[in-house]
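Fold this complex.
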Amino acid sequence: MIIEGFPAAVAAWEAGRIVRGHVLAIVDAGANLPAELWPEFEKVAIERCERDTPNRVRGELEILAHRMHPRSFAERHEEAAAGRCVRLVPGRDGMSDLIATLPTVIAEGIHDRLTQQARAIVDTREERASKSDVVATDQRSTDQVRADVFADLLLSGTPALDDTRDTAAGPLGAIRARVQVLVPAATLTGADDGPCDLAGRSPLDPATARTLAGGTGMWERLFHDPTTGVTVATDSYRVPSGMRRFLQARDQHCRFPGCRVAAIRCEVDHTHDHALGGKTELSNLAHLCQRHHSMKQFTAWRVRQLTGGVLEWTSPLGRTYREDAPTPAVTFTPAETHPGDPAPY
Ligand SMILES: [Zn+2]
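Structure:
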């Protein structure tokens, strides 16, 4: 224990010159100093402690330790400030801690602004309630309002420090939060109240998932088949890895008639162009090798996707070719089963 490094303080406590709280204050403040300075520090500290209570000397001891430190406070602070960061720590029951390590003055400033804004909201609510017979529906505590204001500012605010305006990133304020949410079909309809999945990180409560599925630009939704767990559609242009795996198993190779370039060396193409409103969903995606991908883009060949992953190609001369999806190496249980149905085996 570090208290062993401060024998004079312990001796002074045993002799009744100071109390236990003094010893703890001395150890707390002294621990920030290099160990070779501890004896000198505790000598001065004990003298100060003899004149006042532990609570009153605590701040003084910290300042004393800072003064005695061989490196200036400014120097040490600069080094510590280089470690500033924001960390996300998953918690229980669909909650997480967002922890920011910041210079104290910034952290205090943020907390103070949130507190002032939260109090203003609570005061306004109470003032309105006192003037009318309407019972206030907003029952949030100051803590809750503070957290809500915090989230609101960070999700919708535009940073004042923005040197990206002329870069590819664009103005920072235009960058919106993006989170992947897995929404089982049964939860959307309200038939199931089980938790949804926040991109494989943690469960998400069904009410939030339903709200998000209602449509918002901020969240990247992954709609998945409740039976197979396969993602069948998403909002983004990018094809998530789960869909990519499913498509690889379905297509196995380039889907131009007769072409056998392996899926792994192909690109996943939006059959109906994404830029023209084509969705990122299994029934609008197919593997094409580079050659047939450009052929589709730059020649008069046309393609449309029928049910079951069947592609219908039309040549520039108007002849159609039907390209069935290969028999998959992996078969998936059909999605028509419902809880309570007899088992399919
Ligand atoms: Zn091909």
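The pocket of zinc ion is lined by residues 254, 256, 259, 261, 288-289, 291-292 (CB under 6 Å).
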